[in-house]
Amino acid sequence: MSAQQIVLSLVLATMVFAVALELRASDFVRVAETPRAVVAGLVPQFLLLPGATWLATLVLDLPPNTEAAMILVAACPGGALSNVITHLGRGNTALSVSISAVASVMALVLTPLNFTWMVSTNPATASWLRQLSIDASDIWFSLALLLALPMTLGLVVAHRLPGQAARLRKPLGRFAVGMLLVFIAAGLWRERALLTAQIVPQFVVVVLHNAGGLVLGWLCASAFRVTERDRRAITIEGGMQNSGLALGIIAVQFGADLGMVIIASLWGIWHIVSGLAMVLLWRRQDARLGH
Q1: Model confidence over 8-24: pLDDT tens digits?
Q2: DSSP of 53-115, one letter per residue?
Q3: Which residue has the higher pLDDT, 17 or 206?
Q4: How far lies 44's CA from each of 234, 249, 263, in Å?
Q5: Which residue of 19, 96, 165, 244 is surrounded by the most CB atoms within 10 Å?
Q6: How many CB atoms neighbour CB 174 within 10 A?
Q7: pTM of the predicted model, to two decimals?
Q8: Distance separating alpha carbons of residues 87 and 41, to the nearest angstrom
């Protein structure tokens, strides 16, 4: 793991810890009592977005590596950032965490399965077919260190030291927002050599692809008739994919193909922007309603 990856992991863990300070064990009990909401969050990630992406690649005349990258990103689960965005947007954070945890485990089987059949059944990408082999230890390491450990510590501090937790919530919340903005700036700087007029078509594809994920998440949540807070969590889970996992797979399985790297990198930047836009929209909505 590079120094940059270590720093990023520590920042994400701190964000999850900050989120956990405002949670209670009873929040997760309520989620367990209503598993329908968890199912509603998994359907867009592993069924609706991958399926819609596959259909789109059959219709659109895009370069094979672009289509393969779209399929790969759609096949990946959400990441820890979705929990932070859900929290900032006043959604059901406990539900978001539960969906992320279940999705990370399911991804061990469903990410390779979804990617393989979608690429192999698309004539344009069939020649790109590779047999994915995701290292289960990487998924479990990410799940334990970036989600389970900081979440548990935050819950313990909130329960045992409520006074200190109350004092930490606001500064850590500001830190989370600030670091999300830093991630965007750092991502733009890191990929500055790629940010030319030539990638405008790929950028448009990423924006529309991400918007599709958010819309499918919202539609699925509405179909399952969950609460407003649950709907926000499911919407974000539908539109925030683990592009970091996709980049790792691209590096190992596809020799860091430039076209695929551009799509996954743009996803990693844009889904933070779109997530923060949803946060702003929901907070303004709450302000109008006096919440």
Answers
A1: 667 667 776 776 776 66
A2: HHHHHHHS---HHHHHHHHHHHHS---THHHHHHHHTT--HHHHHHHHHHHHHHHHHHHHHHH
A3: 206
A4: 8, 21, 20
A5: 96
A6: 11
A7: 0.75
A8: 16
pLDDT of residue 2 exceeding 60, the answer is no
- What is the Cα–Cα distance from 43 to 114, expressed in whole angstroms? 13
Average pLDDT over residues 230-235: 96
What is the Cα–Cα distance from 38 to 199, expressed in whole angstroms? 36
Residue 250's nearest CA partner among 73, 118, 6 is 73
Domain boundaries, the chain: 3-289
What gap in Å lies between CA 22 and CA 10, rounded to an integer? 20
- Largest Cα–Cα separation, the chain: 60
What tens digit of pLDDT does each residue of 242-259 get? 777 777 677 666 766 778
Q: Which residue has the tokens 């061990």?
A: 108
Give the CA dihedral 140, 16, 102, 285, nearest 10 degrees.
-160
Residue given tokens 């309520």 in the structure block: 30
Contact 43, 178 (CB under 8 A): no
Q: Which residues contact 94 (CB under 8 A, 6 or more apart)?
A: 23, 27, 28, 30, 31
Residue 18's alpha-carbon distances to 15, 22, 23, 50, 155, in angstroms, are 5, 8, 10, 32, 10
The CATH number of 3-289 is 1.20.1530.20
Q: Tokens 């596959």 map to which residue? A: 54
Rounded Cα gap, residues 84 and 91, in angstroms: 10
* Torsional class of 199: left (φ above 0), alpha (ψ -120 to 50), beta (otherwise): alpha
